[in-house]
Design a protein that fits this description.
- By secondary structure, the chain is α/β, with parallel strands linked by helices.
- It folds into two domains: about 110 residues, Glutaredoxin (3-Layer(aba) Sandwich), CATH 3.40.30.10; about 140 residues, Glutathione S-transferase Yfyf (Class Pi), Chain A, domain 2, CATH 1.20.1050.10.
- The protein has ten helices and eight strands.
- The strands form two sheets. It has a four-stranded mixed beta sheet with strand order 2-1-7-8.
- Strand 7 and strand 8 form a beta hairpin.
- It is globular and about 55 Å long.
- The mean pLDDT is about 95.
- It binds glutathione.
- The site of glutathione has 14 residues, from loops.
């Protein structure tokens, strides 16, 4: 087996990590992944050499102890080196193979994998215009997924404001994807690219809202994507087609089974 080209630390499983893993599988590259289920990440030292902490190290006086910022409620243990490499202190946290450079934001970890792989496969486009168009989709996907993150984290305390923001973001994003797929087989042209990988992972993560309807019931709200297949048929067909690709299936297969029931 070849040497890993990147290291990634994260909670697991995590669709944001799958972006890089799908690209790595398509490019026949290895990524070293370390991590644990979300509720266990407070037992880890967040570092390039991430490791489980000893019980006696898990106290507020540990210089690595920091308040969590987003998506966690526990004290987390992030080394100064981790914060230098990852200015926003988030996971997934990518590291160059030598550990010297932190690569943050899952879309950028994805880009790093593509840059390290065989350019002939075209995952990052075939020319500057295509690569830039892929970047445009990656940015739009990030904007959508940030909104989705806030929404999913607010499930037990949903406000009308939060819900309406998400509904608007979903409509804006899905309409754009639908529009693109009227003309193209994939998001950028007729070949699979990073844009499709990031779309599949982040859109799938948002669709987990369908499994959380019971948490919206008390405030009389319907999950936003309910029946959205009718309004955005190409978008959902694209996700389904991507999900049947063997490499996507490996990561997203079970995760997305609920969508196609
Ligand atoms: N847009 C980022 C999202 C990363 C993110 O927000 N991660 C959160 C967990 S979902 C985190 O690491 N939070 C650390 C903290 O709470 O301190 C990406 O795609 O990588």
């Amino acid at each position: 087996m070849s040497e890993p080209v990147l290291k990634v630390f994260s909670y697991l499983p995590n669709p944001r990590v799958w972006k890089a893993l799908i690209a790595a599988d398509l490019l026949n590259l290895q990524i070293e992944v370390a991590g644990d289920k979300p509720s266990n990440l407070d037992k880890w030292l967040w570092d390039h050499e991430a490791r489980l902490l000893e019980d006696h190290e898990r106290h507020s006086g540990n210089p690595a102890a920091r308040e969590s910022r987003r998506g966690f409620s526990q004290t987390l243990f992030k080394t100064d080196a981790f914060m230098l490499a990852h200015p926003f202190g988030t996971v997934p946290a990518g590291f160059s193979e030598d550990g010297n450079v932190g690569i943050f934001e899952s879309n950028s970890i994805l880009r790093a994998v593509a840059r390290l792989g065989d350019q002939g496969i075209g995952l990052y486009g075939r020319n500057v215009s295509e690569a830039s168009r892929i970047d445009g989709f990656l940015d739009s996907i990030l904007v959508f997924s940030r909104e989705a993150q806030e929404y999913l984290l607010a499930m037990d305390k949903m406000t009308t404001y939060q819900y309406e923001r998400m509904a608007e973001a979903f409509e804006f994003f899905s309409a754009g994807i639908e529009q693109t797929l009227q003309h193209n087989r994939f998001l950028v042209g007729d070949e699979m690219t990073l844009a499709d990988i990031a779309f599949a992972c982040d859109f799938s993560q948002f669709l987990r809202e369908r499994l959380m309807q019971n948490r919206l019931d008390p405030v009389d709200l319907h999950c936003i994507s309910h029946d959205a297949e009718t309004a955005y048929p190409r978008t959902f067909a694209h996700l389904q087609n991507l999900s049947t690709h063997a490499v996507f299936e490996k990561y997203l297969g079970d995760y997305n089974a609920h969508i196609w029931l």
